[in-house]
């Protein structure tokens, strides 16, 4: 039944925040964050902090029921976090401090992905130098057309390396294009990250840490006007 499938049989989201899937996804003795549903709602991916190191779990809807959580990707040394499935469901993107060769010491945070095949998921693949810098790239979100939104402090100096900005990159001819830094309507000289872009790219929601905010970090939203320009968040 469809009512047993949607949102792991939880109530549909409303205006009052509630703990999601307590006792299954949300447990009292750990952190869970960075989650994504597949487009058909039959797969749920999320990050879990295990021993101060994040790993990615998956729950599937099979045989008219949801499976128990299973580890999708984990490593004894590297962390895997912030999963986001591409609109076509073929690639799961995430962030990791994994070494490029998968053997060396931890590095800065890069964006990686695994690809779905007939025999399962591939090994992690780095998203490439067009996306990743020698500093950190965080949290991924995609439009329905496959444009990536993410956050990075790649252009900062040692003095302002907490100034993360939101960037975009189109996927053309089999690779990501040179990222474009979003304008002043979205970014500031402070931290901007944890981005969600609406599938039609009409609005964006993200976290920012600003002196005039209401807390240590607040959620901001920006809408596009009729000309396609972002309005002040």
Could you give a quick summary of the protein structure above?
With 233 residues, the protein is an all-beta fold.
Helices and strands, with pairings:
Layout: H1 2-5, E1 32-37, E2 43-50, E3 53-62, E4 65-66, E5 70-73, E6 80-85, E7 91-96, E8 110-117, E9 120-121, E10 125-126, E11 137-142, E12 148-152, E13 165-169, E14 171-172, E15 175-176, E16 180-181, E17 191-197, E18 203-209, E19 218-223
Antiparallel strand pairs: 1-2, 2-3, 3-4, 3-5, 6-7, 7-8, 8-9, 8-10, 11-12, 12-13, 13-16, 14-15, 17-18, 18-19
Describe the overall structure.
The chain is mostly beta strands. The longest helix is centred in the N-terminal third of the chain and has 4 residues, at 2-5. The strands form 5 sheets. Strands 1, 2, 3, 4 and 5 form a 5-stranded antiparallel beta sheet that branches. Strands 6, 7, 8, 9 and 10 form a 5-stranded antiparallel beta sheet that branches. It has a 4-stranded antiparallel beta sheet with strand order 11-12-13-16, with no helix packed on it. The chain has one helix at 2-5; strands at 32-37, 43-50, 53-62, 65-66, 70-73, 80-85, 91-96, 110-117, 120-121, 125-126, 137-142, 148-152, 165-169, 171-172, 175-176, 180-181, 191-197, 203-209, 218-223. It is globular, with a radius of gyration of 18 Å.
Q: How many alpha or pi helices?
A: 1
Radius of gyration: 18 Å
Structural class: mainly beta
Please provide the ordered H/E string of secondary-structure elements: HEEEEEEEEEEEEEEEEEEE
What number is the mean pLDDT?
A: 93
**Sheet of most strands:** 5 strands, antiparallel
Name the helicity range. Answer: under 10%
Pick out the low-confidence regions: none
* Percentage beta strand: 35-45%
